[in-house]
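Our preliminary data section would be incomplete without showing what the modeling component actually yields. Below, a chain of 987 amino acids is followed by its predicted structure, encoded as tokens that our downstream tools consume directly.
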Amino acid sequence: MASSFFSDFGLMWYLDELKKEEFRRFKELLRQEPLQLGLERIPWAEVKRATREDLANLLIKHYQEQQAWDVTYRIFHKIGRKDLHIKAKRESTGYIRMYQAHVKKKFSNIWSRESLTRIHDYFEQEVVIQKKRERMELLFEPKATGEEPSRTVVLVGTPKIGKTTFLVKLMLAWAEGIFYQDRFLYIFYFCCWEVKRLALTSLAELISGDWPNPPVPIAEILSQPERLLFIIDSFEELTCALKEPESDLCSDWLQQQPGEVVLGSLLRKKMLPEASLLIATTPNYQQELEAQLEHPEIKTIMGLNESDRKLYFSCVFQDKKQAMEAFSFVRENEQLFHMCQIPILCWVVCTCLKQEMERGRDLALACHRTTSLFASFIFNMFTPKGATRPHEQIHVQLKGLCSLAVEGMWTDTFQFSEEDFRRNGLVESDIPALLDMKLLQKCRGYENSYTFIHVCIQEFCAAMFYLLKSSGNHPNPAVGCSKALLLTYLKRENVHWILGGCFVFGLLNAEEEKRLDAFFDLQLSLEVKQQFHQCLKSLGECEHLEGEVDFLLFYCLFEMQDKVFVTKALDCFQEVHFSVTDNVDLMVSAYCLKHCSGLRKISFSVRNVFKEENGDSSTSSYNLVRWHYICSVLTTNVHLRELQVHNSVLDESAFGALCKELRHPNCHLQKLEINNVSFSGESWLFFEVFIHNPYLKCLDLSSTRLYRNDVRLLCEALNYPLCNIEDLTLANCLLSAGDCEAFASVLKSNKKLKYLNVAHNYLDQGVSLLCDALCHLDCVLEALVLVYCYLSEPCWDSLCEVLVCNRSLIHLDLGGNVLKDDDLELLCAALKHPNCCLQSLCLVKVSITDEGCRDIASVLTSNPNLRNLDIGNNDIQDEGVKLLCEALTHPNCHLENLGLDSCQLTSACCEDLASALTQSKTLRRLSLTGNTLDHDGVVVLCEGLRHTECALRMLRLQKAKFGEETQRLLMAEDERNPSLTIIIDNY
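Predicted structure:
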């Protein structure tokens, strides 16, 4: 038996597995069993009152380890728990100890690499170690007492914030016996970018690949999946792990599959569902993981906080005064301070500042922006001490490094072989020099393979490539031109290109141009800037971007700090979408929006910037000034017509500033969306906007909570003569039946409001008040959306009356409410009334059956006004469609659009549908997604589509429901008929 198995893994876990009666019998047998082995008995009084933990301690106290186990094994047999005996024997074989020793050695080596940049010194600080341990302990803790801990934890953090470092320390802590000894027998670490390169593998092979010595006891390891933890690092590297169809996943851990499929099967609990998962990823993929995984627990890793950064500076700088001077400089520069959250970049910043201070240079000139800091860092590394400029060989070396970097960016390569170096003009002797500069490091587990110490270093060198020589001269044809670079960057086609575009633009700054000229002894012309402006102009007209500015472009232009260029660049775009999550985002947004003059739409969210603490606003004066710049666009940009603020938190000052600009005479906004926004301050300031701003036509407050007083103020504003709101959306605003009286008053008196959407509010019988108003002679409303408003039975009578009395209402959406057969019959009777003017009706998910279709079919043949009908997500089946198709062929039916998504249809109804397509003179659009149609059914549909009398112009189906043969058939039909569009959705 392994020497410390008992103490390391504990008898406690096995005693916990015993039921109450089994534990009582275990104690009884403990009176006699020791005597059979020639051992003294433990005093019965101590045994009798012992808890499970106490009893484990008593066994340790009175017997040697092997003796304690022998007694325990005998008792397990006698109480019928041979399974526990087998488990204990298996765990005592030494495999776990051997694997832990291997993990300790392997991950200690990985950890020691960080000492190259002196990060190791910082992390060895006791205060840091303690904080890390506390964070690790909480990873798999239940949310509340009595709850089961989550088996899936997602660790979210920005790229290079320290997620992998955290995971390495966790592996070490487990291997050293600090954490999770009773919970996890084995912990396995998989890096996604390594696994995804495997064309074929299996879970057994992945585990075996990291096992110290053969043979690998794979069956034994996987026999207790509930005691396994799989760490999956860098999830963002996977392209389709969560998008694979369920049928493509595998449950067999011996089955060979592509690496992504194996990890996807683990992630989606197809394989070893009892195992625990710890997944590390970036914020961009958090929502995808939350939506696809089974009850994930989200944990955020924030990197180094301010005290961490201060402590780290003191580790790097020998001189305390110098350390505080450098830290104060960084603390005042929000870009650099923000960058220092990431440990390796904190080292870059410290190293650069130290180099500049030793050379007696002004930090404010040499390191005031991200680009200038990286330029100083690289140029200092390549300039010999005491020299004013590098010699020619150094130029060749740096240009070769830039060529290598840009090739890696375009080919998604971050590990480079010696052959890669040679192809880019670097010789073997250059590699030790680059390692000494700490620009490169050796890759773990790969002989003669190297990587940049951080992807930002690679991105900076790649950016320099575009200013040093033509990309057309690169030996690898995969390396794109400037325009291709910008398009790839702005479309975010590569998750690694975080700062690449920013560096390209930053190097075009006048001061950086001078430094490049001096360092490389060359003259950059205006031609480069003109080329980039032309690229931006063409991108602004690119249909893929649809005239939208990506937020990353804001960062690029901010780095450039050229007001004339920024203005010309942003004039190329009409829309901008950005998300403010910190002070730097706010600073960058404010700078760029000051120079926008052609925008027509702005959409943004703002969080973590404006906070309330102890009732007092903690908004800094800097942030408020920047916020004013953002809001001022509403009055200075004459073309701006649409503003969307979503998922935001605004304090009183920020909210007041926004309202002030919205009500300004120069604000010509026509559409305003305030979605899921919480704000403090007087709400009347906001609702007065609609009294003072005559240009506003559309207002959307979806998912923003409206209290009773807010509703009153809103309705008072809507009734004001100068208010011109025509389109009002209040979905999911926590409205109640009591609020309907105020809206009813508006419907009776307001001659401008045409569209009202109050979906996803618990209105219940309050809808009857709205119906009374809709029957009023002065009501001019044209569209009403009541989706998921919890309509009760009296409401259906009221709605029927509206359909008969109201002459203006042409669109009604009642989806998501329970519509009984009797109520449907009443509704259809009203729809058939000669006075009914309704043109569009939506009854999605209202519990219509095939019998209900009989009433709907009678409406189609009686109401000549009805043009659009959507009854998707109802159980109407093939019999119901048959009734509808008969109605569609009736000469009095004028229906143009029909939605039958997810209606439990099969191919048996395709003949009826095809017949309707050939006889209906008006049907233009048909949607059938979510139904189970086979190939034969689609063939029948296509025959109907080919008929000369078929008037259909759009058919929507679902790709996932069809095989390749059926998809080819549909594509061929789409190409054959130029007047028909067949849309095959991927969802």
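The two ends are 55 Å apart (CA to CA). Residues 95-113 form the longest helix (19 residues). Preliminary results of this kind motivate Aim 1 of the renewal.
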